[in-house]
Amino acid sequence: MFVKEGIIASPGIVIAKALVYEKVIVEVNKNKVEDPDKEIEKFQNAIKKSHEQLETIRIQAISELGEEEGAIFEAHAMVLDDPEFVEGVEAEINDSHLSADNAVKIVTDRFYEIFDQMDDPYFSARAADIKDVGTRVLQNILGIVQADLSQLDEDVIIIADDLTPSDTAQMDKKRVKGFATNIGSRTSHTAIMARSLEIPAVLGLCDITETVKTGDLMVVDGLTGRVCVNPGNEELESYEKEKQKYLDYLKELEELKDLDAITLDGRKVELVGNIGEPNDAAGVLKNGGVGVGLYRTEFLYMNSDVMPGEEKQFAAYRSVLEAFPDGPVIIRTLDIGGDKKLPYLPMDDELNPFLGLRAIRLCFKEVGLFKIQLRAILRASVYGHAHIMFPMISSITEVRQAKAILQDCMKELDDEQIAYDKDVKVGVMIEIPSAAIAADIISKEVDFFSIGTNDLCQYTLAVDRMNQEVSYLYDPFNPAILRLIQLVTATSDKKDQFFTGMCGEMAGDPLAAILLLGLGLDEFSMSALSIPQIKKIIRSVRYEDAKAIATAALNMETGEEIMDFVQESMKKLNLYN
Amino acid sequence: MIKKEVTVLNATGLHARPASMFVQTAGKFKSKIFVIKEGNSINAKSIMGIMAGGISQGTTIEIQAEGDDETEAVDALVQLINDKFGE
Known about the structure:
The complex is a heterodimer.
Chain A: E1 2-5, E2 7-10, E3 13-20, H1 36-65, H2 67-81, H3 83-96, H4 100-117, H5 121-142, E4 156-160, H6 165-169, E5 176-181, H7 189-197, E6 201-203, H8 208-211, E7 217-221, E8 226-229, H9 233-255, E9 261-262, E10 268-275, H10 281-286, E11 292-296, H11 298-302, H12 310-323, E12 328-332, H13 360-365, H14 367-380, E13 385-390, H15 396-415, E14 425-430, H16 433-437, H17 439-442, E15 448-451, H18 453-460, H19 479-493, E16 499-502, H20 510-518, E17 523-526, H21 531-540, H22 543-554, H23 559-572
Parallel strand pairs in A: 3-4, 4-5, 5-6, 10-11, 10-17, 11-12, 12-13, 13-14, 14-15, 15-16, 16-17
Antiparallel strand pairs in A: 1-8, 2-6, 3-7, 7-8, 9-10
Helix pairs in contact in A: 1-2, 1-3, 1-5, 2-5, 3-4, 4-5, 12-14, 14-15, 20-21, 20-22, 20-23
Chain B: E1 2-7, H1 16-27, E2 32-37, E3 40-43, H2 47-52, E4 60-66, H3 70-82
Antiparallel strand pairs in B: 1-4, 2-3, 2-4
């Protein structure tokens, strides 16, 4: 028996037999060839065969995993047809008399390196595509048949170096119960696939393919990030217990689904979901979210090749509003700029993009674009409880300016005799420190606030959390952040019919839940999967206790001290994330 | 053979969508079309080649075409670049 630790990529515990899925290590023939024409023919046949395979996989991926996954294989097919790839390989064969396999490997590696070195996630994804396609062509030239995972006769845990879309698309989803791989991170394809299949995964185990054999009994513990190979009876029993405990916990969360998020002493808050596109609404409903606290409309723009028109936007907003007939849907207007750009909207490079032309500032510059969105939201507002939220507000002047444009749109719709909700609620993101400090002033013009902790932390602590050199300074538990949150909620408490929510990552953090409840937050908006856990915490505490904990925390000196204190308090209440 | 020099003006250069528009436009012509950047020749019908070329805003490139529709091809591609890909 032995235990290894890796990166937690998908939660849960599974006990099953290992299946080592080894990529056949492809040995290419490095000798000069006598007959280049024969090699060219081999290459062309392999391209043809690869095309046929990709088409089969594409159809399977679309039916089992959706259009988006299918599109990956369309991109792969484009690489097969690419003249630079095809001619590159043919040139190596004709000019240098390389074998077809050697030529494919050399050309694939050349492109892989170019794309991999570009510091851009778009190109990293292209690099992975090229490698996946290159390997496929190579295997077809050499007649190597990759182990077939499409029909398995028992439940297995897949052990691999890494898994590509080609690998996962064809797996027997009924039998594959877990992943353990040598490399990978929480954002790699294997991790995303594991979470969408809801199976445990531990990645980054370095040499798991060397140390485990097919048929070994093993445990993948996606809760602690451990894998245990050939466990003894004692360990097996303890893992069975842990597994049962986790299943019970999930069942308990499931049972909370239709219950209110209400404290033991009767304070009710709203738990809602963050979504990026209309399809995400289903996940929010499934997890018991009563509405949407943040609809990030920029995905509508980013997933499109051209500026999405009023009709397209209207249809998207309407479908989300109709999914929540009773709950609020907070639609955030376009938040682009900073690290997010649109291919069809020219933007100058800026020295400080996060302090520059982004979000509402960009919308004021591109009023035409802004009005299309506002008109679409207004028109959709008759189908539910639409709330309009403006991002990156720094002062009341901007709120007034945005509302004036909204008024213009309302007037246009009046003139055109098009219906909209005349009492549509208007709010702002609180993500710039000046807006938090002047929350009482800004509140005069709006119906609600939503605190965006990610940017609020970044701007308050002056730290770029993507910069590894300084990201340690990024801390939502920093007393300065808690005090800013308190300034905002205190304003909200004084006004009737006014609410303050939070839509940053902090709202879904179990460790922050009691603090935020105690600070008086009315609405918590988070990724759908976090909702049940936060609901359980809210339903297990008294509001009075949460207030006492928050008050004590506000007077502490460091984020670390606050986190330790909250952890202790949760333990005392028999709560631990 | 026809050739013309042109400077890429759009903000993202020949990246993602502009690159694919460029390659698709090139693909409509029968002529052999190449982009010459700093002496390197890139097949204008290859999305991988064009994207890997790292042609950013402000880069001057030469477009060369040879074939029956060489004039039309060069004109169409130069115009696409001068129009900033419709941005």
